[in-house]
Amino acid sequence: MQRYFISSSEFNGNDVQIIGDDVHHITRVMRNVIGDQIICNNDQGQAARCRITEIAEDRVHVVVEEWLNEIVELPINVTIAQGIPKGDKFELILQKGTELGATSFIPFQAERSVAVWDNKKLIKKMTRFRKIVKEASEQSHRNKVPIIDKSMSIKELIEEGKKYDVAIFAYEEEAKVKSQNFFGTIIDKLLPSQNLMVCIGPEGGFSKKESEQLKENGFQPVRLGPRILRTETAALYVLASISYHFEELRCNGCQQ
Q1: Which of 39, 81, 95, 116 stands the most exposed, by the fewest C-beta atoms within 10 Å?
Q2: Sequence-separated (6 or more) residues with CB below 8 Å from residue 33
Q3: Residue 167 and residue 227: Cα distance in Å, rounded?
Q4: What's the predicted TM-score (pTM) here?
Q5: Residues 60, 81: one domain?
Q6: Residue 238's closest CA among 84, 102, 89, 99?
Q7: Cα three-residue angle 243-245-248, rounded to 5 degrees
């Protein structure tokens, strides 16, 4: 059943008005008709099974038939802080990271970032970025659409990291000889509902200066396994590992 994220302002009790691009998707792509069912999510992460009762040129009216009790979000709130990579790699990270359960994403301009995003370029990119995470959230049947924050400098990122319960950064040169800095050791100490920031460097990783700045401000260096991962792979490794650890190994939220 197709899922759509609808603004809470479009909910009026059990009546829901769908407008915008979703109307085209419902009527032209999915070719839904009156009587068909879809799932609508509101801004609070609640999902409802709805039935289409009216289709107009610019809107679709549905009625809530059942509010769903779903457990689909990661028990840990994970923010991926990604050093701006080349090309369309950030789009891949957004799409797959959303499917794997990331809560939010923060792009940051690292010393070794080849690509440089100015404000004008970022405004254009953000429209596409938000569309990517919305569609990925619908496809993976999530109840929340991840937040994409503004691009930050390393200094701004460090300040942002102070708001989190745990902040780590992938830096294999530092962490590979210290067992306490294995990623598995870090996540084993995390508790449900905690906020975790994971910082991934761009191609080439973090510079020595950046790693020292991060460590001086409470960020823990970690290694992500015995192999060297590409920047677009590292975030996905982190999210998949957290999912396995909390949702499969510990089986939090398992259906009884």
Answers
A1: 116
A2: 52, 55
A3: 22
A4: 0.90
A5: no
A6: 102
A7: 75
Structure-token match 């957290």, residue found: 242
Average pLDDT on 91-100 reads: 98
Contact 152, 160 (CB under 8 A): yes
DSSP state letters, 61-104: EEEEEEEE----S-SSEEEEEEE--STTHHHHHHHHHHHTT-SE
Domain stop point among 42, 68, 94: 68
Interstrand relation of 60-68 and 47-55 (parallel, antiparallel or unpaired)? antiparallel
- Tell me the three state secondary structure of residue 132: helix
In a shared domain, residues 15 and 92: no
Tokens 């659409």 correspond to: 145
Indicate the helix (H) or strand (E) that contains 41: strand 37-41
Can you give the residue range of the structural domain that contains 237? 77-249
pLDDT tens-digit map of 185-210: 899 999 999 999 999 999 999 999 99
